[in-house]
Amino acid sequence: MADMILQSGLKNSDFKPHAACEVPDTERKAPHRGILFYHYIQNNLFVPVLGEVDPGFEWASDPAAETRLADWPFTILLQGDKDDDVDRDVCTSVAKSLGTTKAKIFVAAGQGHRFCRESFLEDDDPGMDQVLLAVKELDRAVSDATR
What we know:
By secondary structure, the chain is of the alpha+beta class. The chain has 5 helices and 2 strands, in the order H-H-H-E-H-E-H. The chain has helices at 35-42, 46-50, 66-71, 88-98, 128-145, and strands at 75-80, 103-108.
């Protein structure tokens, strides 16, 4: 989507999002798309299957991980409150595990998953106030980290 911005780096005000490419479902596979993911979730198998790949952030509360947590970068979590793809408890759990000195969560009202992928900071879309707050927090975190 390189045409979202002008060569100067400014927002292209003439940009219109492209229509999604639709692939005909000639084999009728769409009703089963993602069914394995839901099987793992509903049968509480997700963590045993992916635990070694993504063990979560429970390690942060282990006293033995004090050095790892101290070295962990400040983490900013931004989520829409109508996100149907990632449960809010996931972000809340990460923020809680890392603690207030290592993580902050921002929740954009009225927004779903990946809501700001076609937005710009100067847009007046719902939820952009939280994006701006998250950017300010990121600026602060980077400034603190480079001192």
